[in-house]
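Crash report, auto-generated. Payload:
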Amino acid sequence: MRVTNRMMNNTLLLNLNRGLARLERINNQLGTKKKINRPSDDPVKTGVILRTSTSIRETEQYIRNLDAAVSWLDAADVILQDVVSVIHRAKELAVAGASTHLDETARQALADEIAQLHDNLLQLANSTHGGRYLFAGQHTDKKPFSGGGVTGDRINDVTFLMSLTGDETKIEFEIAPGITIDVNVNVISYNPDDNPQEGLFMPIFNALQELYGELVDDTGDPDIPLQDLDNSLDNVLRKISELGGKQNRVELARERMLDLQLNLTRILSEEQDLDYAEAIMELKMEEFAYRTALAVGARIIQPSLVDFLR
Amino acid sequence: MRTTFSGIYIALRALQAQQTSLDITGHNVANANNPHYSRQVALHSATRPFPTPVMGYTPSNGQVGTGVEISQIVRMRDAFVDMRLRQQLQSRNYWATLEEGLRQVELFFNEPSENSIHYALDQLWDSLQDLSRDPELLAVREVVVQRAQVLVESIHATREHLQRLSENLNDNIPIKVGEVNVLAERLAALNVQIGKVSATGSMPNDLLDERDALLEELSKLVDIEVVQDYGNMVSVTIGGASLVHRGTAYALSTREVYDAYGNYNKREIIWRDTGASVVIESGEIGGMLALRDLLNGSQELESQGVTGIIQELDEWTAQFVREFNRVHRQGYNLYETDAPPDEINFFVIDHPDDSYAAHNIRVNPDIVADPRLIKASSLPGVPGNGDIARKLASLRLGPLDEPDASTVFLGDAFNSFISRIGVKTQEAIRMTENQVVLENHLQNLKESISGVSLDEEMANMIRFQHAYNAAARMMTAVDETLDTIINRLGIVGR
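Recovered output after restart:
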């Protein structure tokens, strides 16, 4: 093949250009720290990257949901522990009140403390978490219990203001794809068959109200409703242990999500992130090739026969 | 029997021939960097030998030579390489145009990055999960609206960019068609000149170079076929129809084609005289047409099951909005206290047709003004219920298992849409790379035949110079022999 000066020139330019294009690609990879910057860099991997990054954001969201679930469960737990102390104290007072040796003033003092406990319980039952009522089911904007206070010789009735049915009792968080957990305490009923108006708090209110009545009533021996208090305590403790179970479940789910997130992040990183050692090796090699092409160019372009003629 | 002075004439012809060759060498050197120039070579051939029909002639003596003449000045060119190079230029420019356009399309989508539709969509799903946890909080509702706005804006911006690219292509088509017409006119004019010169029997080498250059220029734009005609003229056809025939050029023109809504005007290339459409499949114009069809879709692509990128974005948007609204309508906002739910949509598209969905999608302005209108609850009058928000968020995970639910996996559909664009772009990039290498190879092949090698020209120069010198010496020798005869003969005893 006949070789002309322009041919050498063309080929040199083409090679320099292609070398520069490769350098530019590595430069871009190093600059962005990513192997894949455009779908055309690797369409299949782009699909994997898009899916994986969605999955990562999904797990992040579930972790946030789980954190919120923990805070709901913890809040209810704290409240119910307080309710337990209220019942314990009420029982102590009830036992004290059962004594026939007490005079009227002493019994009144006991009754006053019962009234305070009743008040306290009402506050607990109306507790809020982040501005929302903990024990109002999905009607988190409405105060669930009202009434209370002492009028004359009795504590006023407490009424449960809402009638919750079915789903309305549950605050559900999604903690994994398609899996929900109810993070609130269903105060309406422990068993589905129970009378909705009974529930968790109402028997305690009623027992305290009765206890108060018995204590201020000075006619005859007080008939202390100890059994009711014991039953209620039992109910509350069962709720607390149920909460504990949920807390465990949420904690486990959270650990699992964190593991998953770690795995997904690793996958994404493998698909997308640049292997620096490899990239810099490649950069060095391309740079070498480019420099060589330049040096060759400098040598072949100059001399022609003209340089050697007199 | 030779004449006395024939030696002078032989030397004279030699001097003239060497001088012409030197001139041609000069011409070659002068055009060494002219990319369209073809090296010329003067063919030396011996002049007619002198027949000697005279006394003493016998055939065995052989004929007496009479010197040299330039029989032809040849342009070194390989028509086959030219043809292949023209085809190469067509497909190289086709793919380069596609590559450039598709790279832009990729930039418009900007995937994978944090400024993309995909990311905005993920953010919307996240905010809906938050809403499902805290459906009564206005702040969370605001976030949902904001995220939806970001998504809508990303879809809008991408659609606008794509539309503008397609419009730019459309606007450029008449300009490129104009270039084709100018080239065709010049080719026709050159054909005439070439025909005239050729008729006189000489070779219009430099005109032929100019015409080959024009043909290459034309090949960059459209896929032409070149047929040799008599008198060194050529005929050029596009898709079988004549663009240049001898001295006549047939002009191209464009005409606007409107869609069913009178909105999108697509320019079609036609023959100015007959109005018939021109089939252009390669070259830069072919690439522009192909890219435009990739963006907007065309009947031909549809028959192959390929939808245009803009169309596909519109369809995806419409599907997304339909399914999102369908679920949204099942719920209740913070104001509704009774069943059944009212028909407030979250996204609105004010157009009867899906084909403008990505252009027209908006977040319902009422919801933007008052996010309480977001239907997050599955029960009327229960603000703490976030079931519908959760259901909306679960669209991220796949199609819903409901009787009327769309079967499209929205997230995956979008991902594979992006992957498909990636595949197309990758194909264009690889094809362009290959075409550039092939083109370089053919250019080198052409150069190896037609290119000027300075080394060669210098060697030739020395060759011709020496031959010239030798011929001059020859002249001197003849002169001396004549001198001997004329001046020194017959002067014995003078």
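Post-recovery validation: Residues 6-76+451-488 of chain B form one domain.
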